[in-house]
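Appendix B. One record, verbatim.
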Amino acid sequence: MRISLIGDSLTEGKPGISFSSILQKRNKDILIDNYGKAGDTVISLNKRLANTTFPYEYDLTFLWIGINDVYSQLLGVKPQPFAKNHQEFKQYYHQILHILSESSTKIVTVTPSVIGEKLDNDANNTLKQLSSLIHTISIQYDNVACLDLHSLFKNELHGLNTSNYISTSAIKILFDVLLYKKAVRIDHISSKRGLYLTLDGVHLNSVGATFVAEQYEKMVNTSIQNDVQKADVIN
């Protein structure tokens, strides 16, 4: 089985811990290609994919995009254009799905996780709306399933006494990339900031990366199971 991971810095795994690496270590018989790129929004990802020729036909593709369409508005620097409203977001998201459908048998859309571990902030309320929109888009396609990571993060954080820390400085994010490369240092600074799943309110620490890898793995196993059941029916 060959899988592609499409997304932004959360998929790329910098800053913070790479869930992709954890997923690969847990599933050594599966080939995983990571196409994450820091800073991508739904608009910039669509442009990037339109100019990308994938070297393989993938059995399964994960699409995790959308958080920067909200998060970049909190940063002092806006390196990529972001969707200005739901209609624009929906337009580009559909285009991305059409592109990915040409190189992948199945697609799993992944809703944006969190911006800040205190879930009642404005950014997370906006992400909740985007998550609902992504689910609505996804059910229009026969080959697409949706992993509601936003709700899973919300459930995981429920009742925890986490801080409201969010890194809103592009320079500070760059420092995190340069200074915190080892898991022990990433998890230490995450703990000092009063966070549970993230390094900075967005990017993943060890607990968060493992949690995401586990959710992706469940979707992979479901896909494999469905393929086996279809084969049994045919035989």
